[in-house]
Write a structure and sequence with these properties.
CATH topology of the largest domain: Rossmann fold
Shape: globular
Structural class: alpha/beta
Distance between the termini: 41 Å
CATH class of the largest domain: Alpha Beta
Radius of gyration: 21 Å
Strand content: 25-35%
CATH superfamily of the largest domain: P-loop containing nucleotide triphosphate hydrolases
Strand order of the largest sheet: 6-7-8-3-9-10
CATH architecture of the largest domain: 3-Layer(aba) Sandwich
Bound molecules: adenosine-5'-triphosphate
Length: 343
């Protein structure tokens, strides 16, 4: 299947400074990709190239096969409408109401007012802002403002949502609720999402794949669970994000025991699992052990005819009961990493 977005050998120079060098990766339809890097790594430059606000010095950016770099300006205007943008500081107009902010891209696209009203109503429901339609942005909390920003980005039914540090201005609790909303939008609408961030925690909680940028180059491009479950790769990028990586236990058997293990998140690898989907196993876990258990990330791969499921779950404590439950359902249970409860 052709990827929704394909970045091919993209380089960008500012004078004699290379901001991006030979960047290549692709994004499948319906995926959630995190692009992470330290300050100056090239994230903003890449973002401007991805949303066709800037042409890279070299390379191709194919959206559904159309190269944004070589398209004439008139065609580009139409392609840009297929990419929704969510900003760190929301970029809302306080002179307009919530509903009018969301309607803005529809006005610009020349959608008639009756269709605009119906679409805005739909969008308000998607982002959970019923009752706030007539407020001004200054009357909203940060999280509510970002919901308006997300609704506005969805207005023209984009095929790709690009989020630029969309949670960096928010506190941890609001960050979690905005990430939950984006995950829900990904599930409900099947929308492909790219989230640019400098926070590994956000990637771990939300993205399925991650591209790590360092000095304008891609130094890692893999599923998040693979990155977190491979100690050698983990070490490769540990220096970038020293506080946020899941620690790898030296003897994982020690954690599969009868004592409660003080982890608030665990990265598990389950083998030959009877559950067909991570979400099925998760809802069983939720039903049996409480609502606080959440899947942060997960996916199944086939290795030599066996089903291997890597999943990160958040839980109050990795209790003996949960460990037994998993052992009863899966032939093998490995703890690949964890975040200690006290962090
Ligand atoms: N207009 C410009 N002119 C010259 N150099 C630039 C320009 N914009 C960015 N750069 C340089 O290109 C490199 C990549 O910058 P970029 O803003 O893309 O990084 P970033 O990862 O987004 O950083 P941050 O997280 O701090 O926003 C940096 O070394 C930066 O100094």
């Amino acid at each position: 299947m052709t990827p929704l977005l394909e970045i091919r050998n993209v380089s960008h120079q500012f004078g004699d400074h290379s901001a991006l060098t030979n960047v290549s990766f692709s994004v499948e339809q319906g995926d959630i990709l995190g692009i992470i890097g330290r300050s100056g790594a090239g994230k903003s430059t890449l973002l401007r190239c991805l949303c066709a606000l800037q042409k890279p010095t070299e390379g191709e950016i194919l959206l559904n096969g159309a190269d944004l770099v070589s398209l004439p300006e008139r065609a580009l205007v139409l392609e840009r409408r297929r990419i929704g943008l969510v900003f760190q500081h929301f970029n809302l107009l306080n002179s307009r109401t919530v509903a009018a902010n969301i309607a803005l891209p529809l006005e610009i696209s020349g959608i008639p007012s009756s269709r605009r009203r119906a679409r805005v109503k739909e969008l308000i429901e998607i982002v959970g802002l019923e009752g706030h339609e007539n407020k001004r942005p200054s009357q909203l909390s940060g999280g509510q403002k970002q919901r308006v920003g997300i609704a506005r980005a969805l207005a023209t039914e984009p095929v790709l949502l690009l989020c630029d540090e969309a949670t960096s201005a928010l506190d941890p609790e609001t960050t979690a609720s905005v990430l939950d909303l984006l995950a829900e939008i990904n599930r409900r609408l099947g929308l492909t999402i790219i989230l640019i961030t400098h926070e590994m925690d956000v990637v771990r909680r939300f993205a399925r794949r991650v591209v790590v940028l360092e000095h304008g180059k891609v130094v890692e491009n893999s599923p998040v669970v693979t990155l977190l479950s491979d100690p050698s790769r983990n070490e490769n990028i540990a220096h970038l994000f020293p506080d946020t990586l899941i620690q790898i236990p030296s003897d994982q058997k020690a954690y599969l025991q009868t004592d409660p293990f003080p982890a608030s998140e665990v990265l598990l690898r389950l083998g030959d699992t009877a559950a067909s989907l991570p979400s099925a196993l998760l809802s069983e876990l939720g039903r049996n052990f409480g609502a606080d258990i959440r899947l942060l990330n997960g996916g199944i791969t086939q290795v030599g005819g066996r089903n291997i499921m890597d999943m990160i779950i958040r839980l109050p404590v990795f209790s003996p009961e949960i460990q037994m439950f998993l052992k009863n359902r899966c032939q093998t249970v490995e703890v690949l990493g964890y975040v200690p409860s006290d962090r």
